[in-house]
Amino acid sequence: MNSIFFAAALASVGAGLVTIGAAYGIGKLAAAAMEAMGRQPEAAGKIQTAMLIAAALIEGVAFFGAVICLLAFILTKGAA
Prior knowledge:
The protein is mostly helical. It has 2 helices and no strands. Helix 1 runs antiparallel to helix 2. The chain is elongated, with a radius of gyration of 18 Å. The two termini are 13 Å apart. The model has no long low-confidence stretch (mean pLDDT 88).
């Protein structure tokens, strides 16, 4: 087994962990927002706006993490 195989495996694991973390975070965010909207229906618009902004930030961090995993794999493959 060579280092390129391990780089590919670890980059894949890293990308998977990023995806799982982002999905978990957005799920918790949505659950909390739905609960808050159920408690205060008059504030649903503000809660929904804040939820969408937070979800976009979580997705941005997840995308950044996936790009870092991809770059790590590409750079390791080029160094071999």
